[in-house]
Design brief:
Elements lengths: L13 E3 L2 E10 L5 E8 L5 H11 L8 E4 L21 E8 L3 E3 H20 L18 H23 L7 E3 H22 L10 H29 L27 H17 L2 H28 L16
Parallel strand pairs: 2-5
Antiparallel strand pairs: 1-2, 2-3, 4-5, 6-7
Helix pairs in contact: 2-3, 2-4, 3-5, 4-7, 5-6, 6-7
The chain binds NADP nicotinamide-adenine-dinucleotide phosphate.
């Protein structure tokens, strides 16, 4: 394979020494300007390889920033798509869109999750300039406040460890701008929740220890469930691959929720926050649970739709996130 830009426009199939080559021209999806002309592209070249060739002439658009499409407004082609399997002639016209500066998913998740963990602890330890000088570095007299700190920290440490050791993501990067949006959401809510739960005037839940115990059981049950689903999803995808399969219940009873919903990890995640809201009886926690539930419902519906589209034999009983309802 070789590439040069822009220059020659040859609409014939190259036949060189028995080898057949294709021509690929890359146009700007918005302006239709010609950005690149690649001759001698092997028919079995993947989109990832074409992106690498394009980068040689336009180093500012590294492969993760590129979206290549067959139609200017169509879907992005997958990196593993092969040129000869696409509905193109000997001269393939691809349309390019710049996805913007990218950042790795792992960095994104670490930033998103380390933030709430640390922010919550600042309020828990009542560092200066939060509640007034007389409360600096004091400790709450309510045991539920200490339990809530353990649960909150446990949740985010679990997520950090899962991000590093469990999840097998199919996308290496995401747009840099998303990190500002996501961090505002996670950091902002963590600060708001922590401010009230660790406030010197915080009042413990109405039904005392009974309420806290019940809430703790719900929280731990859902954390275990969420972790079990993450392990099940990891086991669906061999290391280094991007394969997507239908998840089914395994021997682990927590995964049996796959019988009824497509994204049980989201169901358990929402359950954990409901448990935390009952434990702390704190309005910002209830609102965080509600916003998280709405967001995860939107994603779960999208994932459910993709499963139905991709797999003809997808189990019909499943709902996206709440059994039989949603
Ligand atoms: N509190 C909140 O607001 C909130 C919001 C979102 C997430 N979360 C938490 O973060 C966790 C991870 O979120 P997520 O949105 O990344 O979850 P997800 O889409 O269910 O993905 C979890 C992991 O499993 C992989 N995966 C999913 N379906 C698969 C399939 N059919 N075959 C093979 N691999 C598959 C994903 O890879 P891909 O890279 O291919 O997707 C990813 O690595 C959630 O379970 C939840 O606990 C919390």
């Amino acid at each position: 394979m070789s590439g040069f830009c822009p220059s020659l426009r040859i609409s014939v199939l190259w036949v060189l020494g028995g080898l057949r080559f294709n021509i690929v021209e890359i146009l700007d999806a918005k302006t239709r300007d010609k950005l690149c002309f690649l001759d001698k592209v092997e028919p079995n070249a993947t989109i990832a390889e074409i992106k690498n060739l394009f980068t040689k002439s336009h180093p500012q658009w590294y492969p993760a920033r590129q979206s290549l499409r067959l139609d200017p407004k169509g879907k992005s082609l997958k990196d593993e798509d092969v040129l000869q399997n696409l509905p193109v002639g000997t001269t393939a016209t691809l349309y390019f869109r710049d996805l913007g500066a990218q950042i790795s998913w792992v960095t994104v998740f670490l930033t998103e999750y380390a933030g709430p963990l640390l922010i919550y602890l600042l309020f828990y330890f009542r560092v200066p300039f939060i509640y007034g000088p007389k409360y600096d570095f004091t400790s709450s007299k309510h045991s539920v406040v200490h339990l809530a700190c353990i649960c909150h920290s446990f949740h985010y440490v679990k997520r950090l460890l899962e991000t590093i050791f469990v999840h097998r993501f199919s996308h290496g990067t995401m747009p840099l701008r998303n990190i500002f949006k996501n961090c505002t959401y996670y950091w902002g809510f963590a600060a708001w929740m922590a401010y009230y739960i660790n406030h010197p005037l915080y009042t413990p839940p109405t039904y005392g220890d009974e309420q806290v115990k019940l809430a703790l059981i719900i929280f731990l049950f859902c954390q275990l469930g969420n972790f079990s689903i993450h392990i099940a999803l990891r086991n669906l995808r061999p290391a280094g691959s991007k394969t997507r399969k239908i998840p089914y219940p395994t021997k682990n009873p927590f995964t049996w929720l796959f019988l009824l919903v497509s994204c049980p990890n989201y169901t358990y995640e929402v359950g954990s926050w409901i448990g935390f809201a009952i434990m702390t009886q704190c309005l910002p926690v209830a609102l965080f649970s509600l916003v998280g539930f709405i967001q995860m419902t939107i994603w779960a519906k999208g994932k459910h739709r993709s499963y139905l589209k991709e797999f003809r034999d997808y189990p019909p009983l499943r709902s996206p996130i709440v059994p039989f309802l949603l």
